[in-house]
Amino acid sequence: MCVGLSAKVVRVSDGVALVDAEGAKREVSAMLLEDLEPGDYVMVHAGTAIAKIYSDDVDETDRILEGLNS
How many other β-carbons are positioned within 10 Å of the β-carbon of residue 28? Predict the structure, then answer.
């Protein structure tokens, strides 16, 4: 099973985004997404931001992941 994590974009520079996933910050590739800006939410998989998502999607993803950990 492949799982992506939702994260908030902190900074974008030269195709690399610094993202914050519940306090864990890391750099990921932002090459697949256009017009990515700080404050956007993204789905991250295998070190790459693969899609922009919206706050409702973030909440749903978090609920699903919490259920998997129970």
Answer: 21
Cα gap 2→51, rounded to integer Å: 15
Radius of gyration, CA atoms only, the chain: 12
Asked whether 62 and 70 are in contact (CB, 8 A), the reply is no
The structure's pTM equals 0.77
Q: What is the pLDDT of residues 30-49, one digit of tens each?
A: 999 999 999 999 999 999 99
C-alpha atoms less than 13 angstroms from C-alpha of 32 in its C-beta half-sphere: 13
Q: How far is CA 32 from each of CA 4, 13, 51, rounded to the nearest angstrom?
A: 15, 14, 8
* Domains contained in the chain, CATH given: 5-69 (2.30.30.140)
